[in-house]
Amino acid sequence: MKLQTISCHGEFGLINLIKKTFSNITKDKNIIVDIGDDCFCFKSGKDYIYITKDMLVEDVHFKTSWTSPYELGKKAIEVNISDLAAMGNVIAKYIFIGLGAPANTSENFVKNLIKGIQQACNKYNIALSGGDTVKADKIIISVTAIGISKNKPITRTGAQIGDLIGVTNSFGDSGAGLYLLNKYGIKHKYTKHERALIKAQNSPIARLKEACKVSKYLTSLIDASDGLFVSLNLLIQDFSKGANINIEQIPISKNLKAVFNNNQQILKFALFGAEDYQLVFTVPKLKAKIVKKLVPSITYIGKITAGTKVKYFYNGKKQKLKYCGFKHF
Question: Are 173 and 253 in contact (CB under 8 A)?
């Protein structure tokens, strides 16, 4: 009999397997959000404590030939802050870093990696509070971030029928940047628009400031670390509602349009290219103008429906889309 592997489950299937295994454990009354959302959250006195962990693995999330150690250090922090942002109005407080590296890793690499981490920590006023270092075959950075808030979390599961679906900024730049690096490498003579796409891949920015401004008006929230297509599915899958998405309303940057003139390729980057780290959220229709005024970069791309699937439309015509993005397993 053929041995079943985790590739049969996929990343989210594996998460669900873990979640199911621990579902029968007696619940701590202080736990507000458990396994499956962007952060774990528990109540401590009057405060809500948020904890998240993310990893960056060489040759999976980055290549040292095209990502500098300084960029890598910043990115390791930003991707974790993005998870905190996905829970609403949260103040980032502490990080713990696990670093795996080959024994022959240069001291200069590590120093520049630390400088990148320090820069991002200073940006968010975060304290580096501990961690671990080990020998590894490749560079691995595992960050645990802790945040605090007086506010209840905005989870993935609170959307109501009729809510509008909004996003921050634009989609596809990071995926397009990765495409360019894979195709041409780092020594290619890139245009300014291509360099902007590569920067989106190597130096993402968490949308914590935007989340803090608008979270009190939102009914659900997630960050688009795995791509817009995946994020929209996650936003509806746990509460048996659907969504209608207007493809032509998905915001695309001028850099992406300047580099690629094929609309199908642009759409593929926007929907399936991961690591944009934008916010994807729902808001009652009556609050939509307030939210847009607070964060002008927001665009509304659809609405929550009574169905059970995400449906895509282009100028009113229904489209059939199949996932074609990256899979971990």
Answer: yes
Give CA–CA dist 40/30, Å, rounded.
Answer: 11
CA separation, residue 211 to residues 26, 77, 90, 138 (Å): 32, 17, 8, 34
Residues 6+ apart with CB under 8 A from 45: none
Q: Mind listing the pLDDT tens digit for each residue in 177-231? A: 999 999 999 889 999 999 999 999 999 999 999 999 999 999 999 999 889 999 9
Element (H, E) at 91: strand 91-101
Q: Decide if 328 is inside a domain.
A: no
Q: Are residues 84 and 175 in the same domain?
A: no
Alpha-carbon distance of 112 to 176, in angstroms, equals: 26
156 lies in some domain = no
**CATH number of domain containing 264:** 3.90.650.10
Could you tell me the pTM of the whole model?
Answer: 0.90
Query: How would you classify residue 226: left for phi > 0, otherwise alpha for psi between -120 and 50, otherwise beta?
Result: alpha
> Does any domain span residue 133?
yes
Do both 123 and 38 map to the same domain? yes
User: Mean pLDDT, the chain, as a whole number?
Assistant: 91
Q: Are residues 75 and 206 in the same domain?
A: no
Length of the chain: 329
**Nearest CA-CA partner of 205 in 174, 233, 232:** 174
Q: What is the pLDDT of residues 304-324, one digit of tens each?
A: 999 888 999 999 989 888 765
Total tally of structural domains belonging to the chain: 2
